[in-house]
Amino acid sequence: MASPGSREWRAVCDKFRDAQNLSDVESRKDPENEPFRSKYKARELLREIHGALKAFGGGGGEDDDTDADGDGDAGSAFGRGWPGDSERGMRAARLGVVEYCLGVNHVETEELSAGEEHLMNCLKLLHKFSVTDSNVSLSIQVRNQLGILWAGRDETEKAQGFLETAEAIYAYYMKEAGQPPMDLTDFFVLEEDQLSQQEKTKRFEMAYTHTMYYLAQVYKNVQQYERAGQYCHSTLQRQLQFNQFEPMEWAINAATLSQYYITKSRFMEGRHCLAAAGVIADLAGEVPSEAAAQENEAEYEKREQLRQKRADIARCWIKYCLNLLQDAKKLLEDNIGELDPDRQAEMKRARRNEEEEKEQGRKSAVLFGSSDTFDSICALEEKVSCTFPLEFEEARAIFLVGQEYVNQAKEYFQMDGHVTDHIEILQDHSALFKVLAFFEEDLERRCKMHKRRVDMLEPICKDLNAHHYLLVCRQLQFELAEAYNEMMNLKLSLADRQDDLDAHTVKKFNFLCASSIKYYQMFLDSLRSPDGKFPDQLENDVLRPALVAKFCVARLQSKIITTSLSVQLENLNRSLEDYSFVVQYCEQHPEAKNAAETELELSEEMLTLLPLKINRIQAKMATSN
C-alpha cells in the first residue's frame, strides 16, 4: 500500500475529492441535454481510484467468497472477527468505499443493475469483518442504499432485511463502542484534513437517521402503521437533535405525521406535531412580497412554495379540529344522533378524575424541539384543546380555531386554479358547522348553522361543470341534500311546539323539503346512463348513498304540507314508489342489505303503513265528491 504522505497517495486523495465535487456540486449545473455529464466524469475518477487501490494491494478480503445476498440475518452482519482484522479490514473498507460510491453513481444515473452489483461488492468486502469504527458507517450506508434500491423495485421484504440489519449494526456499535467512527471521506484525506469528532458524529448519526426514515416508509408499505409512525416520529426528533433538516420539509413531514395520530384519536401527539410544524416552518423565513415575486423568478418560486406548504399545514390543522369534534360527537350521541345528557355527565365526571393522569401523560409524550423552540411549540399548543369537548362553548373554541385555519388555507387554495382543493376546504368548513350544530341546544341557532353550510356550498354546486367534476358534484349534491334535510327536521321540531302553523312557516317548511328532494334527485340522476336509464346494479362506492337518497326522498315526499288531498295522494304514491325501490333492490341484491340496514327496515315498515294512509285519503276524496 502507498504510504500516507506519498505522491501516489496524494493523487488518489485528490481524485476522490474531485469525484465528490463533480457528483455533489458540479452535477447540479449540468445542462438538460446532458443531465449526467458530471456524474460520468466522477465515475471515471472512481474507477481510476479502484484500479490504484488494487495495484497498491488494497483489495483486502476480495478472496473471500462469502455470499452476502439477502442480508436478512442481522447477526451475520457483525462478522467473524478474523485475525489481522484491523489492517485487512481497513483495506477492505477503503475499497468498499469506492465500490459504494460507484454503486450510488450508477443508481443516480439510472443504471440500477450496475449499481446493485457495486453495492453488493461493497457488502461482500465487509461481510467477514467485525463491526469496527473503520467500517460501521459504510456498513450502514451501503445497506441503506440497497434498501432504497429494492424498495424501488417493490421488493419490500428484501428492503426491510437490509434496513433492519443496518439498524441492528448501529445499535450494536453504539453499545460496544459509542465513539464517532470514521466517515467515508476519512479514507481518502491526508491526516491534517481529517474531519473533527463533532463532524464525524453528525455524519454518522445522519446515516442512521436515514435508516430510520427508510424503515418508516417500508413499515408503511407493509401496513405496519404503528411502527411506521414511531419511526417517522423518531426520524423527525433526530433531525432536530442533530440539526439535519430543511425547515419547511421537516414541517410538512411533522404535519403529515399528525394526521396518523389523529386517525388513532391520539390528539395530544397530533397537536404537538402540528404545533412543532408551525414553529419550524417559521424558520424558513418570510414569504416574499407579491411585488418582489413579480420582479424575480426565484422569489416567485419561493413565495409559491412557502405559501402552498403553509396552506398545507393549515389544512392539517383543520382536520385536527374537525376530527376532535367528530370523535367527541360519536362518544356523546344517543341512538338517534342527539346529545345524550347522561353520557355527557358521565364523561364530565371521568374528565375530572383523569386530570392528574392526563398531566402525567403529557410529560411522558414524545416531544419535539430544543430549548430554543420548545416554549414556542407549547405556546402554539395552548391555543386549542386536545381533550374532547363536552359542551357547546368548548366545541365552539375548537371550531373557531379550525375556521381560522380554513381562512388561511383558502388564501392560497383559491377557486381560480385550485378547484378541487378549494372545494375540499369548503367541505371541511361545512363539516365544522355540522358538528358544532350537534352541541348547540337552541334549535333556531342550529338551523342557522346548517344554513351557513348551504350558503357556502350551493353557489359552487350550481357553477361547477358536472362533466369534468362528476365526483365532486355528487359529493356536494348529497351534502346539500343532507343540510336541507337537517334544516327541515329542525323546523319540524319547532313546529311541534306550535298549536297552529302560519302560512310563512308552512311555505318555509315545504321549501326545505323540496330543496332536499331536489339535491337528492340530482345525485340519483347523476347515476343514470347517457340514455337516462337508472343502473340495474349500483357500484359499491355509490350503493349506500343511492339507497339512502331514495329512502330520504320517500320520507320527504310524505312530509310536504298541503291542504289538497289530490296533491297529498300524489306525494304519498311517490313516497311509496321510492320505499318500494329500496326494498325491491335489496331483495334482488342481498349483498345490499348490510349497506342500508336501517333504511331497509324502515322502508319495509312504511310499505305496510303507507297503503293504509293512501286508502283513507282515497276514501275521503270519494266521500267529498
UniProtKB/TrEMBL annotation:
It is found in: Cytoplasm, Cytoskeleton. GO terms for biological process: central nervous system projection neuron axonogenesis; microtubule cytoskeleton organization; neuron projection maintenance. Residues 20-39, 56-83, 343-363 are annotated as: Disordered. Residues 25-39, 343-362 have a biased composition (Basic and acidic residues). Residues 61-72 have a biased composition (Acidic residues). The keyword Glycoprotein does not apply. Keywords: Cytoplasm, Cytoskeleton. Its main location: cytoplasm. The gene is KIFBP. Belongs to the KIF-binding protein family. GO terms for cellular component: cytoskeleton. This is KIF-binding protein.
